[in-house]
């Protein structure tokens, strides 16, 4: 038979059966969109349908912001174990797995997602406002009501919403103390410590008049390696700050990510095997304050109570898919370490890991 004849014989049941079989063989979280003689969305993250001007149009994307920009006005999550088939005449969605776990990556809401997006029915901006409120309560608990903070300053851009809400809860002035160069990329995924350090200085410039002779609370979305945070703290001191407190909207990151975020090995994470006092000393801060994991979960769960758990392995080391052995993590670390990346001219390709999911 010709290829075109085979394509014409494919029907919805064939596609649903194939996807269901895929679920039985693939472990982890994934989303894909395929074209089979027309648009087919299989476990996309967000499904958008058009308004009157786009009636009959459908779009699938990881965030709602891109669909809204194109004129779509109705969004709903594509649930775990679900597939949607869009043809010229109809839309069919089917739940292929009866009891799938719904565990969205909580780091999306802290850092990666655009604030104007809605992911899994959770408005990102609202979740970050809640993070600011919760973090403010933690600051007050650790520093007391009679703290000596003069001003709250965000690290642009993600933490602006969080810092603004925190400042209002604590009744403190909010100031923009850093000017950002938008043409420097994300520094925590850059290879090489020296390269990351220099990139931070190119990326941010401290405004002296906002720091001089003040006790400042700097708010960031998270602390990964600590390179960015330590440089920012030093920049604040160079600009004349008397004391520098550093607050993170995310809990301490102590474990590497295995679900698609290019995080370094555990030993390159500043919080790995360290107390908060030790982290403060390494970063050069008067005190480092972390959001608690329970508070972060509450910030997101508030807007979608049907999500019972979140994927938070970088914070608690609980890999939700199971089967992530020490051998697998060690192999992953050997590929992601600075020394390995520095010695290669291209990104490393996984090799020799056919049995890495077996317990070591």
TrEMBL record:
Transmembrane segments: none annotated. Keywords: Glutamine amidotransferase, Glycosyltransferase, Transferase. Residues 135-248 form the Phosphoribosyltransferase domain. GO terms for molecular function: glycosyltransferase activity. Pfam families: Pribosyltran (PF00156). PANTHER family: AMIDOPHOSPHORIBOSYLTRANSFERASE. This is Amidophosphoribosyltransferase. It comes from Zancudomyces culisetae.
């Amino acid at each position: 038979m010709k290829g075109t004849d085979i394509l014409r014989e494919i029907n919805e049941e064939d596609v649903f059966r194939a996807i269901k079989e895929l679920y039985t063989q693939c472990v982890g979280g994934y989303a894909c969109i395929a074209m089979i003689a027309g648009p087919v969305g299989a476990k996309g993250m967000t499904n958008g349908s058009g308004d009157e001007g786009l009636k009959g149009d459908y779009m699938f994307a990881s965030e709602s912001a891109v669909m809204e920009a194109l004129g779509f006005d109705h969004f709903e999550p594509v649930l775990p174990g679900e597939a949607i088939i869009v043809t010229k005449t109809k839309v069919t969605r089917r739940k292929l797995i009866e009891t799938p776990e719904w565990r969205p990556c909580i780091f999306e809401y802290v850092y990666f997602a655009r604030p104007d997006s809605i992911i899994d029915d959770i408005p990102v901006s609202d979740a970050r406002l809640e993070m600011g409120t919760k973090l403010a309560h933690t600051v007050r608990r650790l520093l007391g009501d009679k703290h000596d903070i003069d001003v709250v300053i965000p690290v642009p851009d993600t933490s602006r919403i969080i810092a603004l809400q925190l400042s209002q809860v604590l009744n403190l002035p909010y100031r923009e103390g850093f000017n950002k160069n938008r043409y420097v990329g994300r520094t925590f995924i850059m290879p090489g410590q020296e390269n990351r350090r220099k990139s931070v200085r190119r990326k941010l410039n401290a405004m002296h008049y906002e720091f001089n002779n003040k006790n400042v609370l700097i708010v960031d979305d998270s602390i990964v390696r600590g390179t960015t945070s330590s440089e920012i703290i030093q920049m604040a001191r160079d600009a004349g700050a008397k004391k520098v407190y550093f607050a993170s909207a995310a809990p301490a990151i102590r474990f590497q990510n295995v679900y698609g975020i290019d995080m370094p090995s555990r030993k390159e994470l500043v919080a790995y095997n360290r107390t908060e006092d030790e982290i403060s000393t390494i970063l050069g801060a008067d005190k480092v304050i972390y959001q608690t994991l329970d508070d972060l979960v509450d910030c997101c769960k508030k807007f979608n109570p049907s999500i019972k758990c979140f994927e938070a392995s970088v914070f608690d080391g609980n890999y939700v898919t199971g089967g992530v052995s020490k051998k697998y993590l060690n192999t992953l670390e050997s590929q992601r370490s600075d020394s390995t990346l520095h010695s290669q001219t291209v990104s490393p390709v996984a090799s020799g890991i056919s049995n890495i999911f077996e317990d070591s």
